[in-house]
Recover the amino acids of this structure.
């Protein structure tokens, strides 16, 4: 469990939920009426006058910290690191700025080298060829101030539109750069997009890179098909029929209409299984959707590390 100081906790408490969602998770915020907002994941959760209440569960609070702990299920240290880390990378603009002002992607400054990111990903079993490819194509770099791994998502014209951040130190941190557009998350294109009709879908960039590593281990072309990450857990509505597919997936299918088959490689947990079932249910029939979660472990990085461990044991025999 990470450790946070009382000062860091107090600082995190100053962030109200509306400000947090406006500037760090705008895709989650929905205007309800007047000065009342709700969230895309929980329409019975209302935010107004500096407070929030999740009416269907009978719980509420004032701060973003309360929300991350009570609704998202983060531990207190994890929630503090999430808030303070986001604010350190991109402090929220003055409150008199209009919510409708166009957002610009604010990328962290690049470090002089990518040594820590390379070591971090290699430590998680990712093949160096894949790491180098992502760095060379500007999909990945190391930030200067915090040495986070920065995973970039591009639009159809190869303009950066999204960036997810992953801490490389012992203090776990995951976040997004301010101004990120979830329609364009981290992806690895097929070697020939004009010929490939299959898309592999993952929750995170590291899971996608882990799958590519497993393809190399199996002796296959790791860029035969395209791969896309959802930049986190996709949360459908309670009524699956009312859910909409993930924004990044729908944008990718719009940009690359040749895709006809989608392989879901989401996590082996309750959220991942529900997300896979929902996507299979609500996508149009013109797509062939297959569910292929990792055979072992919670996610594809777990599955990769298990495979590497088994290979090492066999080599010692």
């Amino acid at each position: 469990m990470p450790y946070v100081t009382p000062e860091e906790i107090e600082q995190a408490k100053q962030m109200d939920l509306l400000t947090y969602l406006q500037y760090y998770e705008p895709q989650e915020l929905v205007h309800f009426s007047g000065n009342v907002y709700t969230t895309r994941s929980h329409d019975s959760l209302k935010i107004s006058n500096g407070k929030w209440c999740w009416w269907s569960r009978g719980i509420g609070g004032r701060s973003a910290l309360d929300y991350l702990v009570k609704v998202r299920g983060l531990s207190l240290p994890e929630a503090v690191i999430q808030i303070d880390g986001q604010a350190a990378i991109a402090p929220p603009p003055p409150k008199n700025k209009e919510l409708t002002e166009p957002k610009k992607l604010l990328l962290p400054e690049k470090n002089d080298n990518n040594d820590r990111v390379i070591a971090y990903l290699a430590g998680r079993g990712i093949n160096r060829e894949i790491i180098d490819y992502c760095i060379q194509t500007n999909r990945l770099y190391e930030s200067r101030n915090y040495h986070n791994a920065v995973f970039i998502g591009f639009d159809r014209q190869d303009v950066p539109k999204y960036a997810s951040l992953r801490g490389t130190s012992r203090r776990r941190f995951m976040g997004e750069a301010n101004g990120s557009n979830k329609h364009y998350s981290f992806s690895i294109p097929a070697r020939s997009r004009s010929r490939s009709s299959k898309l592999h879908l993952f929750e995170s960039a590291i899971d996608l890179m882990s799958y590519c590593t497993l393809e190399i281990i199996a002796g296959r072309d790791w860029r035969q098909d395209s791969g896309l990450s959802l930049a986190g857990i996709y949360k459908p509505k309670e009524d699956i029929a009312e859910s909409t597919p993930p924004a990044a997936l729908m944008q990718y299918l719009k940009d690359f209409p040749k895709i006809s088959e989608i392989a879901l490689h989401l996590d082996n947990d309750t959220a991942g299984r529900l997300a896979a079932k929902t996507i299979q249910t609500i996508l149009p029939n013109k797509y062939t959707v297959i569910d292929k979660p990792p055979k072992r472990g919670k996610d594809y990085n777990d599955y990769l590390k298990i495979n590497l461990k088994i290979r090492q044991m066999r080599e010692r025999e």
In short: The chain has a mean pLDDT of 88. The longest helix spans residues 300-316. The chain has two domains: 6-89, 115-316. The domain at 115-316 is CATH 3.40.1360.10 (Dna Topoisomerase Vi A Subunit; Chain: A, domain 2).
